[in-house]
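Data card: per-record layout.
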Amino acid sequence: MPTLKRQRVTRKMAQYDPIVTVLKLFPSTTAWKGHSFVSAMAALREVSGKTFPDLEVSPASAPEILITKIEGNISLLRWMESEQCLVSPPKWPKEILPAFSRRLIPSPYEFINVNMKQKRGTKTRQIECHAYLTMYAMGMDLDTLAAVMDESVYSVLTRMYEGVEYLFKIPQFVIWATATDFRRANIPPRLGHMHVLEKLALVAKLAENPFTVPDDLADLVLESPPYLTYLVYSSPKQPRLTRTCRKRRTRERYYATTEPSPDSETTHSG
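The structure for this 270-residue chain is written out next.
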């Protein structure tokens, strides 16, 4: 296990600043459009004439008190006003790559723009680590993220490493990360007890958005090691972001100055 994972992160009193608390709990809600933090971000950018007309971001319902608190965090404010805001980087930091199981490495853009249906950890530490991944995928580089959270880059990387580990404990995430086209893939072998209509309904959910599959059925899909190996290495592939599971939350860095990314994207990274 990498040394990075063994280090203990020391909390600082500055981490209890209200805006830092907001950031750490940001992914704990299902809604992106209309979320108070996202709305405040859009409102602040609108002042300088920078908007996100093609993304799910609106300045509506931005709490004035939250805008004031954001303005008090200079590093966060500068990032929001920069061209990197809501522009996903092409890769994850190399320090956290060992946390990605079976070399299934969705890009930051894929991670932030898939509709996960709130499938993430429920404990405070899990939500916080997920938030660090979210902020990075939104375009906040390591130095900026460390400055915003008043932590070291090492501490940020540790949180992100843990966040990836938590992701791979979510069966729906693993299924989605394999980029399997379930319209053409073999049926999971552990479904013999299910009625044919139930099987068809499950396969339809897997094809449209694996995150809509109930936990018990998602576990069942991955129960067979040979079938999991098939999903990872041999199943027919498709882009991870399809029309039925994608959101429009960020742009890819390559498209930052031109137009939003098209629906067809590279299936695997790393």
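Known properties of this structure: DSSP finds 13 helices and two strands in the chain. Residues 1-16, 255-270 have pLDDT under 50 and may be disordered.

See the next section for split statistics.
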